[in-house]
Amino acid sequence: MATYQSMVLVNRPRNGEIGDYLFEARTQAIPSPKEGELLIKQTHMSLDPAMLGWMSEDRGSYIPPVELGEVMRSSGVGEVVESRHPDFVPGDKVLGMTGWREYLISNGQGFNKLQPGVSAEMALCVFGLPGLTATTGLYQFGKPKAGETLIVTGAAGSVGTIVGQLAKADGLRVIGVVGSDEKADWIVNELGFDGAINYKSENLAQQLKALTPDCIDVFFENTGGPIQQLIVDRMNAHGRIVVCGMIADYQSASPLPGPNWIPLIKKRITIQGFAMPDHWGEIPQILAKLTPYVQQGKIKYRAHSVEGLANAVKGLSMLFSGENKGKMIVKL
Question: pLDDT-based confidence at 160, cuts 50/70/90?
């Protein structure tokens, strides 16, 4: 009997620590689809910082946690290998919520076929959660205008790279905050950012001032950390702060305090936190906004892949250590 592997969540994270203790590998028989169902073989699985939150016990978050004993949540790309669904045939490449497993049965809900010319990596790096998040946050809440200055933290990450490139294509001055000189070089010389700051370097305030002579109009926040206050202090009146992630605090027992609110009052700054599950119903419109930029060659990306489901935990850890160079993907 043919079998497949899945990874089930069996423990909650201890002090934000990511490790093998969280999961249990299980071997199961490959199922057959019933009427109205399809069997998908996952080929590429996405790893995202939000997964640490999904594993926690937090019941007040924007999405319910993964329950103990359930397959770990994730999105991915797969190939239909057997179908009893009228809208799918074997060989179709599909994108959707797949989970940490090699095979899955679906009724087709939430799965979309990849368009011709769209690879699995492009689907996950651009048209998957990163691109949807970047496009939603930037345009619905950042409200960028040509000639303004935008700064994005986590600028070499899957969301930050797209935010910066979209803003650059729209005529903004774009500065990225990253965690290494290699990443700084990449976003400036390959992606076309106007400047970059390695947050691990010295004289951050002076660097920020030099790179934002007209101060900052849009702050797209993915990471948090000490540079956050310095960025807020450089905001222009009526600036917009889009809070997408806070990866620096996800594993911290004592998150850093937020910025001083007095400048927010003086400058009438808008701060908006958001999460994509509030916008699932808007995906067709979001993709309609994003796709022309991709077709015009204005969006570049890079993927950092690990091989096999057994290395998924290692890949997830790399997101929090900053070892990844691009969108983290597990090839199955």
Answer: very high
Please state, as a whole number, how many other Cβ atoms lie within 10 Å of the Cβ of residue 32. 10
Strands (E), the chain: 3-9, 23-29, 38-46, 75-83, 93-97, 103-106, 112-113, 149-153, 173-178, 195-198, 216-221, 235-243, 270-273, 303-307, 327-331
How many C-alpha atoms does 165 have within 13 Å on its Cβ side? 26
Q: What is the DSSP letter of 194?
A: S
Q: How far is 25 from 14, CA to CA, in rounded Å?
A: 19
Under 8 Å between Cβ of 318 and 304: yes
> pTM, whole model, 2 decimals?
0.89
Are 331 and 305 contacting, i.e. CB atoms less than 8 angstroms apart?
yes
For the stretch 50-105, pLDDT in tens is 899 899 888 878 888 999 999 999 999 999 999 999 999 999 999 999 999 999 99
Angle, in degrees to the nearest 10, between helices 283-295 and 129-136? 100
103-125 pLDDT, tens digit each: 999 999 989 999 888 999 999 99
> For residue 148, how many other CB atoms are within 10 A of its CB?
22
